[in-house]
Amino acid sequence: MIVLHYTDGGTTNSIYKYFSSDTIESARELNKKASPLNVSSHYLIDRKGKVYHLVPDTLFARHIIGLNYCSIGIENIGSKKKPLTDAQVLSNAKLIRHLTKKYKIEFLIGHSEYENFRNSKWWKETDPDYFTVKEDPGKDFLEKVRNLLQDINLKSNPE
Ligand SMILES: [Zn+2]
Fold this sequence. Notes:
By secondary structure, this protein is α/β, with parallel strands linked by helices. It has helices at 12-20, 29-34, 86-102, 139-147, and strands at residues 2-6, 43-45, 51-53, 72-76, 108-110. It has one domain (2-152): Peptidoglycan recognition protein-like (Lysozyme-like, 3-Layer(aba) Sandwich). It has a five-stranded mixed sheet with strand order 3-2-4-1-5, covered by helices on one side. The chain is globular, with a radius of gyration of 15 Å. Residues 5, 111, 134, 136 line the site of zinc ion (ZN). Zinc ion (ZN) is lined by residues 5, 111, 134, 136.
């Protein structure tokens, strides 16, 4: 599975720094209660579409509840107020296409869509109360990326 995100602010440097710490910031109380391990992502894409590979694809990165063990995370610098750019759309599509050639990828989802997997065999979170509603990476962005990947037929939900 590939999961697309936005960072909800920050710059390439500040997000890189944020992900570099081993332990999670104390402000993220809900996540901290589940584990002190910091959040991270396999890839980070800046506003101009430049791709940074931060975590090896086959290592566990903490970017989504319940599905980390089977997913590759792609973070994009942006937020609801600063929607993701066309350059980011292109880079995400290129990177996803590359990853589908390398690995057996079945699903492509936005973080905002992960609830669809909550009652499926894919969900591995054992605490039923550990869940947060997410808006990233934005509907328009997801639609644009999917439009560029129509030929690959990646699924967006477990049905
Ligand atoms: Zn996210």
